[in-house]
Amino acid sequence: MGKHAYLVLAHNQKQLLLELLRQIDDAENDIFLHIDKKFDVNLDDVKSHIVKSKCYFVDRVSIGWGGSALVEATVKLLEKSTDTGVYDYYHLISGQDFPLKSQKEIHAFFDSHQGLEFISCSPMNSKDRDRIKFYYPFQDAFGGRTLFNKAMKKISVPLQKCMGVDRTKNKYRQYGIGAEWFSITDRMARYVVSRKKEIESNFYNCYCSDEVFIQTLWLNAPFYTEEGRYHSNISNDPNIDEIYHDVMRAADWNRGKPYVFDERDYNILVESGCLFARKMSENKSMKLIGLLKEYISKSDT
């Protein structure tokens, strides 16, 4: 059994973040943190809650919904972790996630699936491809879902179509789309870092390219085989989207965008077969987190 790297993207809710960090704090883990530049939190205080793991911070950027900064922060985390060591798996999670199993159980699961990439990936349709086909220069600067951004998108995309803009032309053999969150091997992590300039050229100034760049790099990697990616055998869960089962994350997009879990969802989560739940909030999920901590503690013994 090797070590694991947790790559955490946190942008708010300090107490929720600390609960997560205490739960993944383990001698077999190193924790890499990107704290959003807008998140007013003392980094030394955050680090003081991590006892068993080594903790590393990466340079902070300000992240807006759907913008390139999310891709940039993810690459920063992969750069820092691959520079620090060699890990069996690199797990990208958010500060609003929470484990559903003990670290011992999580490590054992990945030991039993050693070498597989946990990347949710589906073919892109033409609407999805528009995310990276055109330029969205205001996506980061003006805060994602703002009215200004929506208006600029309605103006700029038809204009670029008339001008024949196509950033995807003659770039990749295949394009994929899926969940942003992943658990990838050392080989895949280092491959992504090696394509940093390519990522900046093809996936910056895009629209929600955080759900595209890992998938597309994977599909075009020299070592790609579809058998090399984990596929869950769960396909009819009414609460958890199928693509999230492929990355062992419990996320419910039927009741929200995504839905925020509370204590009434306890049975759904512990019976989901997933390793992590997304997402939680301080005003809705703290009782649930208490129940999950108790469940994990009992299962660990």
Mean pLDDT: 93
Strand content: 5-15%
Briefly note the structural class of the backbone: alpha/beta
N-to-C SSE string, H for helix and E for strand: EHEHEHEEHEHHEEHHHHEHEH
What integer value in Å does the Rg equal?
19 Å
Largest sheet geometry: 5 strands, mixed
Low-confidence stretches: none
**Strand order across the biggest sheet?**
3-2-1-4-8
Q: What share of residues is helical?
A: 25-40%
Tell me the distance between the termini.
20 Å
Q: How would you sum up the global shape?
A: globular
Number of alpha- plus pi-helical segments: 12
Query: How many E-type strands?
Result: 10
What would you note in describing this structure?
The protein is of the alpha/beta class. Helix content is 39%, strand content 13%. A five-stranded mixed beta sheet has the order 3-2-1-4-8, with helices on both faces. Helix 1 (14-24) links the parallel strand 1 and strand 2 (29-35). Helix 3 packs across helix 7 and helix 3 (68-84) runs antiparallel to helix 8. The protein starts with a strand and ends with a helix.
Keywords:
globular, single chain, alpha/beta, 301 residues, three-stranded mixed β-sheet
Write the layout of secondary structure elements.
Blueprint: E1 4-10, H1 14-24, E2 29-35, H2 43-48, E3 54-57, H3 68-84, E4 89-94, E5 97-99, H4 103-112, E6 122-123, H5 126-133, H6 147-162, E7 176-177, E8 183-184, H7 186-194, H8 196-203, H9 213-219, H10 242-245, E9 249-250, H11 266-270, E10 276-278, H12 286-300
Parallel strand pairs: 1-2, 1-4, 2-3, 9-10
Antiparallel strand pairs: 4-8, 5-10, 6-7
